[in-house]
Amino acid sequence: MVEKSHTAGLWPTFYEPFRHLGTRMADWLSPASDAKASEEAYRITMELPGVEEKDIDISIHEGVVTVKGEKSAEREEKGDTWFFSERQYGAFSRTFRLPADADGDAISADLKDGVLTLSVPKRTPKAPEAKKVKIGKG
After folding, report:
1. Which of 46, 48, 51 is closest to 74 using CA atoms?
2. Which of 10, 60, 76, 93 has the fewest CB atoms in 10 Å of its CB?
3. Is beta strand 90-97 parallel, antiparallel or unpaired with respect to 64-71?
4. Nearest alpha carbon to residue 60 among 10, 129, 119, 130
5. What's the DSSP call for residue 7?
6. In contact, 87 and 29? CB cutoff 8 Å
7. Which of 99, 95, 103 is nearest to 119 (CA)?
8. Model's pTM, two decimal places?
């Protein structure tokens, strides 16, 4: 018979606060975003204060838009005494699945005052066309 350690029950309670740490860190580093639709287009806005245009990569593949980038920490610490720092630095990545009527080939992006705006026009629905069917000799 194997005897259980008296600490065996302690490990799960110790581990629990750290269980979803990776997900929480990803959420913390993900920029705040909004998505909305108008009659003509879909718009996605992301807060990217302090991120330069050259540090942002936007791609689209199979109806999924991915925005990646990095906010670099540029601070000199010689002789400074830091009491706290709430500013976020590091790499980030966000993905957005586009609706079926979005024209991903016509996506545009604009970065102004730390806000990235992606505009994706809606496809205009084509009117169904009548098709003539020829009768072949069979």
Report:
1. 51
2. 76
3. antiparallel
4. 119
5. T
6. no
7. 103
8. 0.65
Per-residue buried b or exposed e for 13-40, using 16+ beta carbons within 10 Å of the residue's own CB? eeeeeeeeeeeeeeeeeebeeeeeeeee
Rg for the chain, CA atoms, rounded: 25
By the 10 Å C-beta count (0-12 exposed, 13-18 middle, 19+ buried), 117 is classed as middle
> What's the one-letter identity of residue 76?
E
What is the secondary structure of 97-116 as a DSSP string? EPPTTB-GGG-EEEEETTEE
Residue type, 87: R
pLDDT in tens, the chain (138 residues): 555 545 455 555 555 555 555 544 444 567 889 999 999 999 999 999 889 999 999 999 999 999 999 887 665 556 667 676 656 677 889 999 999 999 999 999 999 999 999 999 999 877 888 888 889 886
Query: Which H/E stretch holds residue 24?
Result: helix 21-29
